[in-house]
Amino acid sequence: MGKLILVTVGSYNIELIPATTWGKSLAHLARQKGSGFRSIWDKIRERELGRADRKCEICKTSASSLICHEKWQFDDAQSVQRLIGYEVTCRECSNILHLGRASEDKVLWEKAKVHFAKVTRMEENVLDDVLDQAMKEWTQRSKHNWSIDISHEPLAFGFEKKLNNLQPSSQQERKWQGIS
Ligand SMILES: [Zn+2]
After folding, report:
1. How far is the CA of 91 from the centre of ligand 1 (A)?
2. Cα(165) to centroid of ligand 1, in Å?
3. How far is the CA of 56 from the centre of ligand 1 (A)?
4. Ligand 1 centroid from CA 134, angstroms
5. Ligand 1 center from residue 180 Cα (angstroms)
6. CA 148, CA 131: separation in Å to the nearest integer?
7. How far is the CA of 160 from the centre of ligand 1 (A)?
8. Could you give the number of structural domains in the chain?
9. What's the gap in Å between 102 CA and the centre of ligand 1?
10. pTM of the prediction?
11. Residue 143 lies in a domain
12. Separation of 48 CA from ligand 1 center, angstroms?
């Protein structure tokens, strides 16, 4: 097992997905036409929402639009990005977990900081420091390629190759990767 680097602040475990694996997620695979994964992902999501009692697992609000996050662990020695489970969150907590993207939008970033302060009872500006630290890790991890290990999810059996072959598609994703 390689060194596990994790930026944890309050109840937030922040893991920025390396640019080289952006879009290689189960949720993204489900959105690909003809992937055959849509109904499987719906099952996974429904299972996880049930497990979380349909509440955000971080701030505990029962929002109508909950997000099922894939939780990843990064084995830096082996360059393996491994699925280790899921976290159900509200949209606001999701923006904090995806703070790289949120920080690109001024309004979104201010909102994220307010929510962060409310949930963690820390100063809003702590999130700026978290962003700096997370971006340093992200830059390091984005320098090389990773293989994605989804063996944690039995329902995804047989989809590992498809997932590893996914390419990021949207403009926004390409921008975030710096490859547009
Ligand atoms: Zn929340």
Report:
1. 7
2. 32
3. 5
4. 20
5. 32
6. 24
7. 30
8. 1
9. 15
10. 0.86
11. yes
12. 15
Q: pLDDT of the chain along its 180 residues, tens only? A: 334 445 788 889 887 888 889 889 999 999 999 999 999 999 999 999 999 999 999 999 998 899 999 999 999 999 999 999 999 999 999 999 989 889 999 999 999 999 999 999 999 999 999 999 889 988 999 998 999 999 999 999 999 999 999 875 554 555 554 443
93 within 8 A of 69, measured Cβ to Cβ: no
Which residues lie closer than 8 Å to 11 by C-beta, 6 or more apart? 58, 59, 119, 120
Of 71, 40, 75, 45, the C-alpha closest to 146 is 75
> Ligand 1 centre and the CA of 166: distance in Å?
29
In angstroms, what is the span from residue 55 Cα to ligand 1's centroid?
Answer: 8
Per-residue model confidence as pLDDT tens digits over 112-127 = 999 999 999 999 999 9
Tell whether 95 is covered by a domain.
no
Query: 53 alpha carbon to ligand 1 midpoint, in Å?
Result: 13
Distances (CA, A) of 34 to 29, 30, 154, 158: 10, 9, 20, 15
Identify whether 24 is part of a domain: yes
Query: Amino acid identity of 76?
Result: D
> What's the domain range around 44?
7-90+134-168
Give tens-digit pLDDT for 59-79: 999 988 999 999 999 999 999
Coil vs helix vs strand at 157: coil
Is there a domain that residue 124 lies in? no
